[in-house]
Specification:
Pfam families: Y2_Tnp, Zn_Tnp_IS91. GO terms for molecular function: DNA binding; transposase activity. This protein is α+β, with helices and mostly antiparallel strands and about 375 residues long. About 30% of the residues lie in helices and about 25% in strands. The C terminus is likely disordered.
Length: about 375
C-alpha cells in the first residue's frame, strides 16, 4: 500500500523533461514498479507481450478457466501461498493428463496460466485463466497432433479430474501442517474433521469452462495483454473517492441478459480492505508456464513444433528509435510536438531545481 501511495510522487524522485524546440519543461515522477499498482502495469505488460509474441504458433488457441468453490476459497484466503500454488499445479496437471490420454488427444501440450483472485466487486474469487494451443506433440515427439476445429477437451472430464487432484492435494497440505484455520473453522485443524468437511465437495460439480477459440494469434496477444498484468481494479472503473466513500463500476454476472453494469459504493476502509485481499505473497508468481511451454525447454519445443508445421521463425523488425527510447521520452512536447529530453534528475525525497508544473508520468 505504501508503494502505491508513493507512486509518481516526489517521494520516489524523478526527472525534469525539457523540449528541445520550445523549451517547455515538465516534471515526471518515478513509478513504484509494484506489481499490484494499477498505474505501473502498462509498461510491464508491454514488455512481457513482446517476449511472448515470439512463442506464438499458427494454430487455434483455447481459453480454459478453473474456479474454486466459495467455501474452499475461504481456506485459500487464509493460506494463499500454499493453496494458490496447489490451484496452479492441479489445473495444469488436469489439462496435461487428459490431453495425453490416447482416447482424447494423445499429445503432450503446453499452456500459460494466470491467477486472478478477484470478482468484479473486489470479492475473493480465486480462479485460473489458462491459454492453451489447440494441439501438441505426439507422445513419441514425431508429429503435431491438432485438436478438432473449435473444440479442445470435454469440460466435464476436466472438472472431475481437477476436483480429485485439488482435493487430494489439499489433504496432503493438511497432513503436512501447511494449512491454518480461523474463526468458526478452527476445528478443521483436526484431520478427521477436515476429511469429513471435504466429503461433500467430492460429489459437487466444480466449475471448469472453456471459451470459444480465439480468432488467431493476434487475438491471443490482445487478450493476454488485458489479463496477464491486471490488478484487482483499474483506475478507469473508479467513479469517485473521498475520505468516506469510494464508488466504482462493477459487472453483475448473475444477470443473464440486459445491462450488467452497476455502481457499487463502499466505505473507504472497506474498499481498501477488499483491494488488499488480492495482494499476493512475496515472491509468488501469478503467471506460470507448463508442459511444452515450461521455461526450461520452451524454445526447443517451439522450434520443433514450427518445423513440424512447416513454419519458419518470424523475423521481427527492429524497434524504431522513438520506441527504443525511455518511456517518459516517447511522448512529444505537449506545446509544440518537439522531442523531450531529460534535463535534470532528482532523488527520493528531493525536489527538482527546475521550476515546472508537476505532471503524472512514469519514469
Amino acid at each position: 500500500m505504501s508503494a502505491i501511495e508513493a507512486c509518481r510522487t516526489e517521494a520516489l524522485g524523478g526527472h525534469v523533461a525539457g523540449c528541445a524546440k520550445c523549451g517547455h519543461h515538465h516534471i515526471a515522477y518515478n513509478s513504484c514498479k509494484n506489481r499490484h499498482c494499477p498505474k505501473c502495469q502498462g509498461p510491464a505488460a508491454r514488455d512481457w507481450m513482446e517476449a511472448r509474441a515470439e512463442d506464438l504458433l499458427p494454430v487455434e488457441y483455447f481459453h480454459v478457466v478453473f474456479t474454486l468453490p466459495a467455501e474452499i476459497a475461504q481456506i485459500a484466503f487464509w493460506n494463499k501461498k500454499a493453496v494458490y500454488g496447489l490451484l496452479f499445479r492441479a489445473s495444469a496437471e488436469t489439462v496435461m493428463t487428459i490431453a495425453a490420454d490416447p482416447k482424447r488427444l494423445g499429445a503432450r501440450i503446453g499452456m500459460t496460466s494466470v491467477l486472478h483472485t478477484w470478482g468484479s466487486a473486489l470479492t475473493h474469487h480465486p480462479h485460473i485463466h489458462m491459454i492453451v494451443p489447440g494441439g501438441g506433440l505426439s507422445l513419441d515427439g514425431t508429429r503435431w497432433v491438432a485438436c478438432k476445429r473449435g473444440f479442445f477437451l470435454h469440460v466435464r472430464v476436466l472438472s472431475r479430474l481437477f476436483r480429485r487432484l485439488f482435493l487430494d492435494g489439499l489433504l496432503a497440505l493438511h497432513r503436512a501442517g501447511e494449512l491454518a484455520f480461523y474463526g468458526g473453522l478452527e476445528g478443521l485443524a483436526q484431520a478427521d474433521a477436515f476429511a469429513a468437511w471435504l466429503k461433500p465437495f467430492r460429489r459437487s460439480e466444480w466449475i471448469v469452462y472453456a471459451k470459444p477459440p480465439f480468432g488467431g494469434p493476434e487475438a491471443v496477444l490482445a487478450y493476454l495483454s488485458r489479463y496477464t498484468h491486471r490488478v484487482a481494479i483499474s483506475n478507469h472503473r473508479l467513479i469517485s473517492a473521498d475520505a468516506e466513500t469510494v464508488a466504482f463500476r462493477w459487472k453483475d454476472y448473475r444477470i443473464k441478459s440486459g445491462n450488467r453494469q452497476k455502481v457499487m459504493r463502499l466505505s473507504t476502509s472497506e474498499f481498501i480492505r477488499r483491494f488488499l485481499m488480492h495482494v499476493l505473497p512475496d515472491g509468488f508468481h501469478r503467471i506460470r508456464h507448463y508442459g511444452l511451454l515450461a521455461s526450461a525447454s520452451r524454445k526447443v519445443n517451439i522450434d520443433r513444433i514450427r518445423t513440424l508445421l512447416g513454419q519458419t521463425m518470424p523475423v521481427r523488425d527492429a524497434l524504431p528509435a522513438a520506441e527504443a527510447a525511455p518511456l517518459t521520452l516517447r511522448e512529444p512536447c505537449p506545446c509544440c510536438g518537439g522531442p523531450m529530453r531529460i534535463i535534470e534528475i532528482f532523488r527520493r525525497g528531493q525536489k527538482p531545481m527546475s521550476r515546472a508544473p508537476p505532471r503524472e508520468q512514469a519514469a
